[in-house]
Amino acid sequence: MKAIPTAIADVLILEPKVHGDERGFFLESWNRRAFAEAVGRDVEFVQDNHSRSAKGVLRGLHYQLHHTQGKLVRVVAGEVFDAVVDVRRSSPTFGVSVGVTLSAANHRMLWVPEGLAHGFLVTSDYAEFLYKTTDYYAPKYEKTLLWNDPALGIAWPLDGEPLLKPADARGLPLADLETFP
Predict the structure, then answer these.
(1) In the annotation, is 141 catalytic?
(2) How many other C-beta atoms are found inside a 10 Å radius of the C-beta of residue 149?
(3) How far apart are CA 49 and CA 33, in angstroms?
(4) What is the pTM of this model?
């Protein structure tokens, strides 16, 4: 597994070794030892999630203040633009965003550690998105960062307005949001 650094030190693009030929491909999507070596720490995942979304759906930007979740995310069908924002006030990259394309074709994964807001926009006709979490979903602690807050500078590859759930449309700008110390 190859780890590619991003503008936020803890956020890593992970490229698994893909073995392919005319029959198809094989890759190891999860290996605890390889992951620990790539990210520099051992992680225990407690929940796997799978979502399917149509083109133009934007989910996020979410995080939990308590029961914080690290996430290992990937796409198994289609393509998304994945975005992460550092919401740790004590971090030198507080307010910095990272955007990366994840797709079934490029096999890339993204490690999003605890303390970061996360979301994605579906850029293909549909996408199936898988993610492992280091803690359980705790809706009462979930916060939503406004996806289009100008302070974030996220260059969403939009063609029109995104499809949002009402809670995501009501997200707060970073300046008004409860964040991590």
Answers:
(1) no
(2) 20
(3) 21
(4) 0.95
